[in-house]
Amino acid sequence: MIASDTLTLAGLADAAVAGTPLGVLGHPIKHSLSPLMHNSALAALAQGDRAYADWRYHRLDVPPAELPAALALLHRRRFRGLNLTVPHKVLAFSLVAAIDPAAQPVGAVNTLRWTPAGWHGFNTDGYGLAAAVRENLGRELAGTPVLLLGAGGAARGAAVECLQRGCASLWIANRTAENLEALLAALRPVAGAIPLRGFAPDTVPADLPAGALVVNATSAGLREGDPAPIDLRRLPRPASVYDMIYNPPRTPLLQQAAALGLPHANGLAMLVHQGAKALEIWSGVPAGKTAPAMAAALRDRAP
Ligand code: NDP
Q1: Which ranges of 52-124 does DSSP label H, i.e. alpha helix?
Q2: Is residue 30 flagged as an active site residue?
Q3: What residues does ligand 1 touch, defined as CB less than 6 Å away?
Q4: Residue boundaries of the structural domains of the chain
Q5: N or C terminus of the chain: which is more exposed, having fewer CB within 10 Å?
Q6: Domain 126-266, what fold?
């Protein structure tokens, strides 16, 4: 079912969209927190500068087969910017006119900016992770040994960010060996001299470093009854644990981190910072200025 405040491609073809429109495209999209986050930040910006008073961030339900037509229509309609969420991030990569160089090795985009020549694609998820790890755990990716769990889209973005920022080493664990191998092969050109290794989550290598930042980029923990993607007790003692999942707020992995007394955080701050960076790309307003209003909107939302 499509919520009443959700736009569709068919609906957009008939309806006028006033002001300076932005939006998020996904399928399903009903539960996205991005409209709340962005509209709260835009309302706060408009208090200081009336130029933002007509900026609105819309929710758009777009199935994958409609993505090319939707991007073309939204470009004609002069949407200033778009976010892309599941399942569009990889598909959109091949549909845009230009790609930000930092997003090229990720192979996926989550933010598009209108230009006369077409959409310009960016990926702000890696920035969001780095900013969240700094804010919640007091760690920089640079110089840190990272143990990344997962080999899907989010893991690829996280891995590229860790390598581009100069992590000390990157170890990746994933359930399905072929997916892990494919990710490692894609990352080798980005890694340069940084040690890059993979392993199966149930066979922990003897030379895995202690003091690692563990980042969960698997979807294990999203559903009730999911197992933790790795047993933290079997690892050399990590320094801290970041789980990209924010709903539920305490996954089995984070519960185990708490029981072991390890600093840990869920993915809410990553959601905020990737959003604030997208708004910076559209408006020029530094992400650090709008992130607090986005975070406050998420804190205050009805459960
Ligand atoms: P994908 O579907 O691309 O990848 C899923 C990954 O999870 C794969 O590595 C898969 O392993 C693994 N996985 C799935 N189920 C299990 C399980 N039961 N046990 C172990 N591993 C499992 O998803 P994404 O990469 O797009 O997203 C991953 C997570 O990151 C999601 O929970 C998403 O919500 C979160 N995320 C959070 C963001 C934020 O802003 N906080 C931003 C983006 C993503 P396999 O290869 O074996 O199938």
Answers
A1: 67-76, 89-93
A2: no
A3: 125, 128, 150-155, 174-176, 179, 217-220, 222, 226, 229, 244-246, 267, 270-271, 274
A4: 7-123+274-300, 126-266
A5: C
A6: Rossmann fold (3.40.50)
